[in-house]
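Q: what sequence does this backbone want?
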């Protein structure tokens, strides 16, 4: 028997996750009334081959505090319920709500952001006791499916840590979700070489130019030492999403080069984390016609 409580922030992807779980052989019961959870678990728990996912979230509103006690009672009775919590940054949740033109369950027709903030407070106890926290801030649908597959199909030892390596341009503003920001504008700038200007840090010519004097290699090594030191300590403290950002003037050459270098070093050196690289501003100059 495998029993999963699917929960998390509204707009973080629970509906999509539920569909993926069904594809993996789970029977999904969504928005189960909290007072029925204990009886439901007692009825289904002893079916050896059964896989069940129960969706409970902020729609339960005033009944939500009862969930903590029920989960503790079930655990004391020897019934293991795995808690899967989906999360995302407030900015991304707000953007998703605006795109779908939905009302937040706690805000009604009023402003969405206060509803998100209140939901985060009410849901914190579930996040703290979650077995798996998946932050979908930067995840595509197929990437969410892969994360779920690791946990529920491949049965991998899942560590709740996703690391995003990001490049950006200072002239377009700091990334709001960055945890660590490094300025690489001290490196040689290909922008002033006419034949190099149209290229990006993904091109060998730019990589060779940026790294030619050795400073890039020293900086990357020292930054890698810091990030690899911090990751296990962040995991220990319960952090599950780390954004490491590298910035240059336009976000096209130097920052892209160093972000790629850092991604490759982490990929080959640290196991058990989700790792992505994103170049936020690499195409910006094309979009604005420069």
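A:
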């Amino acid at each position: 028997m495998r029993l999963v409580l699917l929960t998390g922030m509204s707009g973080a992807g629970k509906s999509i996750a539920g569909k993926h779980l069904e594809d993996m052989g789970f029977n999904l019961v969504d928005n189960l009334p909290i007072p029925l959870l204990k009886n439901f678990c007692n009825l289904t728990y002893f079916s050896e081959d059964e896989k069940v996912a129960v969706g409970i979230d902020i729609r339960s509103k005033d009944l939500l505090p009862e969930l903590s006690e029920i989960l503790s009672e079930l655990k004391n009775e020897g019934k293991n319920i795995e808690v899967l919590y989906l999360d995302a940054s407030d900015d991304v949740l707000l953007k998703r709500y605006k795109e779908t033109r939905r009302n937040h369950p706690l805000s009604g027709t009023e402003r969405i952001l206060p509803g998100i903030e209140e939901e985060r407070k009410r849901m914190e106890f579930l996040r703290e006791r979650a077995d798996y926290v998946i932050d979908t801030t930067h995840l595509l649908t197929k990437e969410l499916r892969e994360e779920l597959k690791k946990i529920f199909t491949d049965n991998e030892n899942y560590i709740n840590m996703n690391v995003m390596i990001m490049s950006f341009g200072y002239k377009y503003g700091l990334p709001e979700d960055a945890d660590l920001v490094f300025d690489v504008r001290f490196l040689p700038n290909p922008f002033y070489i006419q034949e190099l200007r149209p290229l990006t840090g993904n091109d060998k010519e730019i990589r060779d130019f940026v790294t030619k004097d050795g400073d890039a290699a020293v900086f990357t090594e020292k930054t890698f030492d810091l990030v690899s030191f911090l990751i296990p300590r962040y995991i220990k403290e319960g952090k599950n999403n780390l954004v490491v950002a590298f910035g240059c003037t336009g976000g096209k050459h130097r920052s892209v080069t160093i972000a790629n270098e850092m991604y490759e070093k982490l990929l080959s050196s640290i196991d058990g984390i989700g790792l992505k690289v994103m170049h936020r501003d690499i195409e910006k100059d094309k979009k604005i016609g420069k």
